Amino acid sequence: MKPPFKPLRQTRAYLDVLAQIREAILTGTYPPGSKLPSERELTEQFQVSRVVIREAIRALELSGFVRIRQGPYGGAYIEDLSSAPIVRSFLDLFMANKFCAEELIQARLLMEPEVARLAAARLDECLAKRLKEAFLLEKRGKPTDDQWVRQNLEVHYILALMSGNRLYEAILASLLALTHEIVRVVKPPHQLIHNHEEHGAIVEAVLSGDPDTAALAMKEHLRSVGHALVRLERQYREKTGRMGLSVPSETVSEHPLS
């Protein structure tokens, strides 16, 4: 088989190797689960040094395109792309003080009522069962703080899946991960950040196939959660040593939480 890659100039070899392999993955030359050619083979095909190939493969690994496996069957294996890189980027931006908790909630207030509306309008039996189970799990057992946060966000993750909009699903995965991060670090009293009855109202409306009520219930829930998260943000930034956020108040006042 003719090699799919072209020889390169050394001056910009690392970027060109990265671009060509990425394009080969995106166009299906190397589908998820398949293995890239060995380091030696790639060196010969691109006619560059092994250092260049290693830099490109490392960049692909960091961006979620490949996973490196060790051992006799090791190598760079193609990953099935997910929203994980987006989640990491959102977390990095928040930790770098590029936006605040109130802006996070404003985004959720714009998206999640519509997600709840879509979930109620296109009710799926299998996902409806998962939604019920996730809701019931919220009050069971004595989970660790991290498990408790995950349990209470699961309803939101499932609703995003039920919406049928994969872009909503990817963006909300990032926004929910931020919410998880704040609560996980601060460890507030459980009743401060979560109201089981509010989730109950959302779940009931969705399972009843009532889009308008589901959207309204989600909006009310997020307003409650939003006030709590805004109060927790300062504690989060103090605990993580990430103070110094300078977001003018007028940038977050157009869509008040109350």
Keywords:
258 residues; mainly alpha; Arc Repressor Mutant, subunit A; Four Helix Bundle (Hemerythrin (Met), subunit A); two-stranded antiparallel ribbon; 3% strand; elongated
Walk across the major sheet and give the strand order. Answer: 1-2
Low-confidence stretches: 246-256
Q: What's the level 1 CATH class of the largest domain? A: Mainly Alpha
Helix content: 55-70%
Summarize the structure.
The chain has 258 residues and is mainly alpha-helical. It has helices at 13-26, 39-46, 50-62, 84-95, 101-121, 125-137, 145-162, 166-186, 190-193, 196-207, 211-240, and strands spanning 66-69, 75-78.
SSE topology:
Elements: H1 13-26, H2 39-46, H3 50-62, E1 66-69, E2 75-78, H4 84-95, H5 101-121, H6 125-137, H7 145-162, H8 166-186, H9 190-193, H10 196-207, H11 211-240
Antiparallel strand pairs: 1-2
Helix pairs in contact: 1-3, 2-3, 4-8, 5-7, 5-8, 5-10, 5-11, 6-7, 6-10, 7-8, 8-11, 10-11
How would you characterize the overall build of this protein?
The protein is mainly alpha-helical and 258 residues long. It is 64% helix and 3% strand. It has eleven helices and two strands. It has helices at 13-26, 39-46, 50-62, 84-95, 101-121, 125-137, 145-162, 166-186, 190-193, 196-207, 211-240; strands at residues 66-69, 75-78. Helix 2 packs across helix 3 and helix 10 runs antiparallel to helix 11 (211-240). It is elongated, with a radius of gyration of 22 Å.
